[in-house]
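Onboarding guide, step 5: your first structure request.
Type a short instruction followed by the sequence, for example:

Predict the 3D structure of this protein.
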Amino acid sequence: MASNPLVSVSEQANAIRALAMDAVQQANSGHPGAPMGMAEIALALWQRHLRHNPADPRWPGRDRFVLSNGHASMLLYALLHLTGYALPIEQLKAFRQLHSMTPGHPEVDVTPGVETTTGPLGQGIANAVGMALAEKLLAAEFNRPGHAVVDHRTYCFLGDGCMMEGISHEAIALAGAWKLAKLVAVYDDNGISIDGRIAPWYIDDVRGRFEACGWQVLGPVDGHSVEAVDAALAEARASTAGKPVLVIARTVIGQGSPNRAGTAKAHGEALGTAEIALTRAALDWPYEPFVVPEPIRAAWDARVAGAAAQADWDRAMAAYAHEHPALAAELRRRLAGELPAAFAETAAQLLATVHAKADTVATRKASQIALESYTAVLPELLGGSADLTGSNLTNTSHTPALRFDAAGAVVKDEQGRGGRHINYGVREFGMAAVMNGVALHGGFIPYGGTFLTFSDYSRNAIRMAALMKRRVIHVFTHDSIGLGEDGPTHQSVEHAASLRLIPNLAVWRPADTAETAVAWTAAIQRDNGPTALLLSRQNLPYAPKANTADIARGGYVLAEPSEVGLKGKPRAVLIATGSEVSLALHAQAELAKLKIAVRVVSLPCTQVFDAQSVQYKSGVLPAGVPRIAIEAGVTDGWWKYGCAAVVGLDRYGESAPASVLFEYFGFTPANVVAVVRKVLGR
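The system replies with structure tokens like these:
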């Protein structure tokens, strides 16, 4: 972007400072220090390097920008406003207010130009790693000689808090291993956090740490010198090292504030009217709050340059489509997140096949069977596992392992396929947050596996996917005490119930191959939120079904009393999920011998079932009929269904073979029969 010679870089940087301190002051809430300290860094990147178009925030050819230190949200809002995005000054005045476009931390789909929701520190850099990975894999798959239609960079700002969070180490290690040369991170090294100067508790050798993880490190540079930051970013872009790049920029938090600069008070407090007046004088910024003079606005305006950059890319895409029409159509489909026509046919065929075969397998194996079908027709499925591939069964014959050569290029097999299965290593949190970044970028549907008990490590990234409404699929195997001998450290007891508490997360605990196939179908079709699949280690028998249509409703009548030789209405309803469905069916048969008629309801996804019509739900769970839930986990979540009793496990497990544990903890037909009889007074 050409700069206006009549407007100095200090005036442009001070526009950011003024907007940040004014917005925080008006809200009497927020973090002015980082935006004020990072103004020159932001100016150097956004005016001299970042390729973007304010008129089209979702242009696929744009560079991605992630503010990992999301508490500095006013830095991003000021940049978006000044460069010409649809973020008027009224929205900056409404900073942190109800239903404004300027929430306390950046939120994707709320503010135009925001690429990801940040605030939980460290996850932004992990999202950026996922975005850079998606760009690299799409480029390897779609670019052709003379046609580099996928060719953009991912930039990320991060602060001390991001560095301290453990997830950042998981993410930077993966970025180095994957040689993500188009990832550039800028570290705002200001030495201050909420508790004060960080030196007593943060002594990391940042350069050594990143270099050990395979990064190129530049600096430290003067973060208040636009020219110094500009030069470092230019060096990062020109680098031929084949590595991600970290630029260390030394700054003063709250720069410009006479009494708050360099102090913890600048971090998370409004400056106050008196200090703002002093700051205005120190910056030679005599304008009223939220006023930016027109020449300074014009110097920031990126709309003309952005439109030209997008027009160049459009021409490149047109030329690509002329020579490679099928590839261009596929790339557009993938970036739009649309499923191919073959998906519906594959889903129907898969369900019909597993229903006909009625195999007795672990649902983790049933998951792999479903994946084998879907990865054949959905090249966008990008899988992985946190060092448990052989246990999670997330790999298929269509998803070779992702590998890179010494130069950083994607290794392709004899069929010309790049890898689609990622070995994340023992990095559950990093895997989950990287998958969020992949989903945010577009072009892939990411899925990744680990044991259900380790969903605790991933939890905040799962929550972020749910908050951002992104299609991410978590494959959680070894879902109960059925894990067996590894004992209570690995046996999931509270995890199913805990995950069900996350709004907008669909949690499926299927009972057999058919329910698993439906769960995978629903997860792939769901484009407004993540899905967790809770899968068994142990083999589960196929549950006979009159039809499979209602599985997709999340809960359905699996077996009526008539199916065990009894007439009339049920005296009770047994509700079960996963491995306990077969237990409910056995108990139904035993109760029939006592002339007690019960209905068995399989409820693989409570969220989907709860969203059904009142008429449907009352048809499955009729009023006035006692309900008994059965699940090998904590009981709290089941009482909402008006249960008279719950056969569950409100304690941790033990180390023993699975069959021994199920009997020891009362997950037996005899115990279920006893509970039903007690409820019915029989």
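Each response can be followed by summary notes, for example: The domain at 9-307 is CATH 3.40.50.970 (Rossmann fold).
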